[in-house]
Write a structure and sequence with these properties.
single chain; mainly alpha; two-stranded antiparallel ribbon; 8 helices; 78% helix
Length: 191
């Protein structure tokens, strides 16, 4: 009986599902804490915004370690499970499932993740994958998420102090992204 090489053992065990589970869990956590806010510069900011850049880091890690297809499946699984979680929680709490809440968050999450992955894959394949490019990708993805979220909840723009909250959110996420982009730029590509 022939002895298996290290590469054959690594190929036979694919641990991508762990990262898909991690992304899904983080997405559910963000959905769970979205109603809790903290005050920053006199405006309420959701705790969920603090975890959003980490979803991009996990998706980028899956892309870098495995491939684009695995990252797409991770986004699909986490998005669908998040919608299912919202439906189950609405049922469990005896509340109505509001379609605009589901579409706003789901569309914002999925589209911003695909924008992130598409630009990230371009950066990996066509550039040196430097820190500034990765940082700009993270920030652009967050801006896309906030824009889509704003389009769905357009009434908040008029009636509340939305713009203060918007720029505070972008500022907080920018600080988080600076650290995450540095970590991301140090991750080696491939298995």
């Amino acid at each position: 009986m022939a002895r298996k090489t290290k590469l054959e053992i690594e190929d036979s065990y694919n641990d991508c599902w762990i990262y898909i589970l991690l992304l899904t869990t983080l997405t559910i956590l963000l959905e769970s804490v979205k109603t809790y806010e903290f005050n920053c510069f006199g405006t309420g900011v959701s705790y969920a915004i603090l975890g959003l850049p980490f979803t991009y880091l996990i998706a980028n890690y899956i892309t870098k370690k495995y491939d684009y297809k695995k990252a797409v499946s991770a986004i699909a699984v986490s998005g669908v499970i998040a919608v299912c979680f919202m439906a189950v929680m609405a049922f469990a709490l005896g509340k109505n499932l509001i379609l605009s809440n589901v579409t706003g968050e789901f569309c914002g999450y999925v589209v911003s993740q695909f924008v992130n992955l598409t630009i990230y894959l371009f950066i990996l394949n066509n550039t040196k994958a430097s820190y500034p490019l990765i940082l700009v990708n993270y920030l652009f993805s967050i801006i896309v998420f906030c824009m889509l979220y704003t389009l769905i909840y357009l009434t908040k723009v008029v009636y509340e102090s939305y713009w203060t909250s918007y720029f505070v959110t972008l500022g907080i996420d920018a600080v988080i992204c600076i650290v995450l982009a540095f970590i991301d730029s140090k991750i080696k590509r491939g298995k």
